[in-house]
Amino acid sequence: MSMSTRATPQGKSFPELVCELHLPSSATSASVQGHRLPLSDPHPRRIVIIGDTGCRVTTRGAQACNNSAAWPFAAIAKRAAREHPDLVIDLGDMLYREGPCPTGDQGCAGSPYGYNADANRADFFTPAVPLLSAAPWVLVRGNHEICARNGLAWFRYWEPRPFKGKCAGDLTAPYRVQIPGLQLLVQDSSAASDVKANPSQVAQYRKQFATFAKWATRPSALLTHKPLWGFVQDSSGGLVPVTADLQAASSNRLAAAIGLVLAGHVHGFEALGFGGKVASQLVIGDSATALDPAVTKNLVGRTIGGRKVKEATTLDGFAYAVLDYSTARHAWDTLVLKDPSGKPLASCRIGVGRAACRKA
Predict the structure, then answer these.
(1) From start to end of 205-289, where are the E strands?
(2) Taking Cα atoms as reference points, which of 310, 344, 314, 351 lies closest to residue 330?
(3) Which residues have C-beta within 8 Å of that of residue 207, sequence separation ≥ 6?
(4) What is the average pLDDT across 176-185?
(5) Predicted confidence (pLDDT) at residue 83 exceeds the cutoff of 80
């Protein structure tokens, strides 16, 4: 089958031709120039989840992109591929090499930077090769992929709908992915306001939550870069709740069938359970980008979105997550967080009202 042109070269920043092919559901194998591609498993049992993977390089400071311990995305991709996932979920923020490496900094010396093909290759496509070869991906757009940043690359490479030759706005329509036992509801929250609700955005996101309510006729998970409910600990030790736009737009209520919210954005791991019939929130934004200050405060009993947290676990090391389907319980409810070497950091039982984790 002949591939079709998705994106033609666009100046020096994006000199390559991008091609695509919509595989028929009847396909049993696929390859491009001898490189075999992973196909969707009709009976998936394992999902690898990553978020916030790029190497932070700005004029104010930089990660040591040349050091696999300081920026372990390649190690995470290689080790996560060994988990033999049936699907990979990337919660967004793929490019962080936004500025030149500071003069004299050997940790990132020679790094490309900016919103171009070279920086995207260094930050994502090259280190992700093992995991890209392991399973199909569902990608969520992050705030580093807005039009003012790496948005053109988002639409050239990762947006599942046709490319129109430009960055087509900062609020794309939601869509859903069906897998046995779970429906993935994918939301573009890349431009959502973190701590102060923007009325115009709230109105737009409110329409999306109404769409999710119509779609949620079976067990579902909401995939959104910015958390519906999450905490950041500031430099003074205070807790800052996020994300204001999404909380206002949803009125902090989701359809009963949405039992899980998966997000990144906060550079750490958080698992929040609220009890009752409220969806649990997992934040997985710790897959190689420079980590945020650790959340050291106990989150149990804290209020966010008008609800009290009843179960909470936070971790601040680099990690990826493995979500498994339980055939005994007929549910995607078993999650293990692992460090770049594959060592378990925490084991969780998740679901509606529940996010019970035990640290290793």
Answers:
(1) 220-224, 230-233, 239-242, 258-263, 269-273, 280-284
(2) 351
(3) none
(4) 97
(5) yes
